[in-house]
Write a sequence for this structure.
């Protein structure tokens, strides 16, 4: 059995966890909107056409913020098409995903759905085919109380109160050649700065997210962020990051080490933000919005067969394996280890499209990746402790030395809890974890949640929705101020410690 040591000190911290770290994403893509959150003909639909089973699972995840309406879709988005009487809304050829958009769900319906789901919208504006004027009008429609053209139009559409959307994305992946209205860094920077400046004139309380490059491997990465933030430093509050991983070569050990790549990505973008801050003699930290992240590769071949211009086809419907859940867990741990800079996260996406939740005509079910996200959303709040991990390593082909153990500890002082999230990436052996708790006298093990299976490729399906689900272990103990826990080989672990007051 391998051994690993975790070292923490209650006074050595990374930073506080922003609850928006556990956000998600709904794009007009595939069956995310239609048949995912909205399906009026379904027996599961409520009086407004929203699927009650989907809503129940979203509320279970406690998702605080949901990005909308894209994604690539937003670069051709005409928000006016999706408001007002449904019978008057036009269908459009949607170029980003080569389908037909019916516009039966639009801005107001999404805002209503968010209230039912207990989350806030994170709205994106179209900087592909549109710009400053359209963004200004959309913000006025959403946030002005009344007395202007677009706020009164909202009222005429049946929404007397403003939506009060506070978080706005200035476009999406604008350095990507696949993007409608693709731009150079200089072109985007000027447009984003001027759009953001006007939007904050309309509503000074909003926060703005500038587009970073579309991924770590983009040739524009680095220089794009530096150029955009140099222009937009005084205007924006966050820069976006997008990152997906896939196991296309069958190498599980290498795949499970991918979080090391994410760690370097986050550190690089934070360094660029600080460079720009220094160059501008600024006091404001530009924070990070990892507003697209997940595993994505299972559906690539099937997506090539989608019929062009069909309506909400089955697209990007990855069926996630147990090992995908392990990597998602490691990615969440990595995000928490950078909680001082990563303030917003959006698991992409929420329903049906590379998603933790799937639906069919018979109901909705939880994919394997649902569970690590759920556990972090429930228990990953408070202050992240600077977690030093001493673990054996293995050689990962694309990532170098990879520790067998990914781990982070989060201290919720108000609740008197410490939660340890850990992934044992050893595919064969159990691991003995020890962590000194002398800085946390009186803490005992409340529960040890584990996600484990002998089959890395096991999945949850419509017919077997609970093939992969969490269990509990009773071997974790605290004795003489030291936590000792056995982590099964290839497992996701949540060890919850609570302070027990002495009588």
């Amino acid at each position: 059995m391998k051994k690993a040591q975790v070292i923490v000190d209650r006074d050595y911290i990374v930073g506080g966890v922003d609850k928006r770290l556990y956000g998600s994403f709904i794009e007009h893509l595939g069956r995310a909107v239609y048949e995912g959150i909205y399906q009026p003909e379904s027996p599961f639909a409520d009086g407004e056409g929203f699927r009650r089973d989907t809503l129940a699972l979203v509320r279970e995840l406690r998702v605080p913020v949901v990005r909308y309406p894209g994604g690539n879709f937003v670069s051709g988005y005409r928000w006016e098409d999706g408001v007002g009487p449904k019978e008057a809304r036009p269908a459009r050829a949607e170029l980003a995903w080569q389908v037909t958009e019916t516009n039966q769900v639009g801005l107001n319906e999404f805002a209503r759905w968010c209230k039912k789901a207990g989350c806030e919208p994170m709205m994106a504006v179209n900087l592909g085919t549109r710009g400053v004027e359209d963004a200004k009008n959309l913000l006025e429609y959403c946030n002005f109380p009344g007395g202007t053209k677009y706020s009164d139009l909202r009222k005429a559409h049946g929404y007397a109160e403003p939506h009060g959307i506070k978080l706005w994305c200035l476009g999406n992946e604008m350095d990507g050649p696949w993007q409608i209205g693709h731009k150079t860094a200089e072109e985007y920077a000027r447009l984003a700065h001027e759009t953001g400046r006007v939007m904050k004139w309309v509503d000074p309380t909003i926060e703005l997210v500038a587009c970073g490059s579309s991924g770590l491997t983009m040739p524009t990465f680095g220089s794009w962020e530096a150029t955009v933030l140099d222009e937009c430093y005084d205007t924006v509050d966050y820069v976006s990051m997008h990152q997906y991983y896939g196991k296309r070569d069958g190498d599980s050990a290498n795949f499970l080490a991918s979080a090391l790549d994410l760690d370097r990505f986050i550190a690089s973008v934070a360094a660029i933000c600080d460079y720009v801050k220094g160059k501008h003699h600024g006091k404001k930290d530009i924070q990070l919005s990892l507003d697209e992240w997940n595993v994505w590769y299972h559906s690539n071949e099937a997506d090539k067969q989608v019929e062009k211009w069909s309506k909400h086809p089955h697209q990007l419907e990855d069926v996630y394996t147990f090992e995908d859940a392990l990597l998602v867990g490691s990615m969440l741990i990595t995000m928490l280890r950078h909680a001082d800079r990563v303030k917003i996260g959006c698991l992409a996406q929420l329903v049906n499209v590379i998603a933790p939740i799937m639906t069919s005509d018979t109901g909705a079910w939880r994919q394997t990746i649902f569970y690590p996200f759920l556990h972090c959303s429930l228990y990953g709040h408070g202050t992240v402790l600077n977690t030093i991990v001493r673990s054996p390593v293995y050689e990962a082909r694309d990532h170098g030395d990879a520790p067998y153990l990914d781990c982070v500890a989060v201290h919720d002082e108000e609740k008197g809890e410490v939660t340890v999230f850990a992934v044992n990436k050893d595919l064969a052996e159990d691991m003995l974890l020890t962590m000194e708790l002398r800085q946390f006298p009186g803490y005992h093990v409340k529960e040890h949640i584990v996600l484990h299976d002998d089959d890395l490729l096991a999945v949850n399906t419509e017919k077997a929705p609970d093939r992969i689900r969490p269990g509990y272990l009773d071997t974790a103990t605290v004795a003489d101020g030291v936590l000792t826990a056995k982590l099964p080989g290839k497992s996701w672990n949540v060890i919850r410690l609570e302070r027990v007051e002495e009588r």
